[in-house]
Amino acid sequence: MSNSQEKNPLRDPRDRRLSRVAGPSALVFFGVTGDLARKKLLPAVYDLVNRGLLPPSFSMVGFGRRDWSDDDFRQQVRESVEAHSRTTFREDVWNQFATGIRFVQGAFDDDQAYENLKATLAELEETRGTQGNHAFYLSIPPKAFEKVLKQLSAHGLASREDKSWRRVVIEKPFGHNLESARELNSIVEEVFPADSVFRIDHYLGKETVQNLLALRFANQMFEPVWNANHIDHVQITMAEPFGIGSRAGYYDGVGAARDVIQNHLLQLLALTAMEEPISFNASHMRAEKEKVLEAVVLPEDLSQSFAVGQYTSGYQGGEEVNGFFDEKDIPADSRTETFAAIKVGINTRRWSGVPFYLRTGKRLGRRVTEIALVFKKSPNLLFDNNEDSGQNAIVIRVQPNEGMTIRFASKVPGTQNEIRNVNMDFGYTHSFTEESPEAYERLILDVLLGEPPLFPRHEEVELSWKILDPFEEYWEQHQIKPEPYEPGSWGPESSYDLLARDGREWRRP
Q1: What is the Cα–Cα distance from 84 to 87, expressed in whole angstroms?
Q2: Closest alpha carbon to 241 in 322, 362, 398, 402
Q3: Disulfide check for 24: which of 45, 131, 193, 198 has CB 3.0–4.6 Å away?
Q4: What three-state secondary structure class fits 184?
Q5: Is 377 assigned to a binding site?
Q6: pLDDT tens across 471-488, in order?
Q7: For the whole model, what pTM was predicted?
């Protein structure tokens, strides 16, 4: 294990600002013409270059079907960077970056294209000093993973006998159930060793998610109450105000639960509920997350433990919007959910008896991702006329307006013993002069540095599917039809019933 991997990022102020510099390397993008690459990945690479975190020898290769020359691709990258980069565009930085940009034209099953890629990487090693260090980023549909991985192996691009490294980056989804996830993991790890596989969950690169570990383990005031003795329940929410748009081809048949709960929200659950790791070493972090996921238990009666919905047409933000069935290419009989909420428990000493409610949806009230730990009600012996004052809560805002809110009761000025909920708020933008890096900046840099703590291994992926699969199987077996909900609302009525049955209610984000 290298020294950089053993560092505790929460005790190293340099790491918070991503002031680590990757060594010589080349990054190959498959799926470079897609929206993710254009809006997120390519701008993130430029931002790393602009901040001096990639060396002058760094090189980038696009692989795709387009009939582009290197210059054509450079122009496409420049347009993407100018439109979407987080940092200021600088001509001198661009000129340095552009000299290492190449494009290889071909299909995923084109043998000659992989020979051309091999020759291109050899040329970069000779002319730019990449030292044979290559990362392959698969921003492609899951059905193409096996094809590309086997081609990389067949053409000698996945392995290296000298001290250089080869790594692969895989975007979610990691399968569509436990069985397919195991098959995919088997295929990936036949080609690349486990420690060279980086499964991207961009939520884990967000500053607030990482700060959750600092909040829990660097502050004595929180740890004593972070357990079932004080916490009544936990709510984890990811809401989006927009519909599926042009993603019908991907989204129909996948749905909100597979798209978000299986990965993003269960990862947030694991980080919220895990015990303190021995260190921030990747194996120690993963061990604690896996313990939590393995300890997740489902309610005995699944029929009372979920809610699913589909958004209807209507008005949102003063504009008329399509319903789910108005979106292009959605079948009239689709049972794909655009909203999903589930209830689970965690069978550990710390969390026994505390329900965790996870929800996600499209066309909801606003864009927000948050983790809310809601405390048990105070006995209120002195304030028995204030039953409606609510419960204390710690709310971690993952996005937007990254930060944290603590909700507590305070006396209202005046002569009566009236109490009211108030908020104490912490926001990154108000408290730090440093600007938070974009999640993909952090994750791409970690790939090039070979630092894996923020990337889930196949054990975590499989454990997450074990949690979600019973819900999916129940919905399929009973032909569950999602309940309609209005755009701009917070989901179907059944989602409110899910908590009301337990005498609880959703927070209004």
Answers
A1: 9
A2: 362
A3: 131
A4: helix
A5: no
A6: 999 999 999 999 999 999
A7: 0.85
Q: Which of 176, 233, 264, 458 is an active site residue?
A: 264
Q: Is 147 a known ligand-binding residue?
A: no
Give first-to-last CA distance, the chain, whole Å.
42
Whether 16 has a pLDDT exceeding 50, the answer reads no
* Spatial distance between the Cα atoms of 271 and 164, rounded to a whole number of angstroms: 33
Query: Is the N-terminal amide bond of 400 cis, ω within 30° of 0?
Result: yes
| Residue 98 dihedral angles phi and psi, to the nearest 5° | -65, -30
Rounded Cα–Cα distance for residues 191 and 329 (Å): 36
State yes or no: 259 annotated in a binding site. Answer: yes
Alpha-carbon distance of 201 to 455, in angstroms, equals: 7
The residues with which 406 forms a beta bridge, in sequence order, are: 394, 424
- Which is it for the CA torsion 242, 368, 250, 312, positive or negative? negative
DSSP state of 262: I
How many alpha carbons fall within 13 Å on the CB side of residue 258?
22
CATH code for the structural domain at 206-379+457-500:
3.30.360.10
Dihedral, CA atoms, 252, 254, 256, 262, nearest 10 degrees? -170
Q: DSSP state, 489?
A: B
SS3 270: helix
Mean pLDDT for all residues in the chain: 87
Residue with tokens 């209202």: 412
206 annotated as ligand-binding: yes
The pLDDT of residue 421 is 79
Give the C-alpha separation, 13 to 19, whole Å: 9
Asked if pLDDT for residue 6 goes beyond 50, the answer is: no
- Taking the domain 3-201, which CATH number applies? 3.40.50.720
Would residue 264 show up in a list of annotated catalytic residues for this protein?
yes
175 φ/ψ sector (left φ>0, alpha ψ -120 to 50, else beta): left
pLDDT surpassing 60 at residue 3: no
Domain locations along the chain = 3-201, 206-379+457-500
150 annotated as belonging to a binding site for a ligand: no
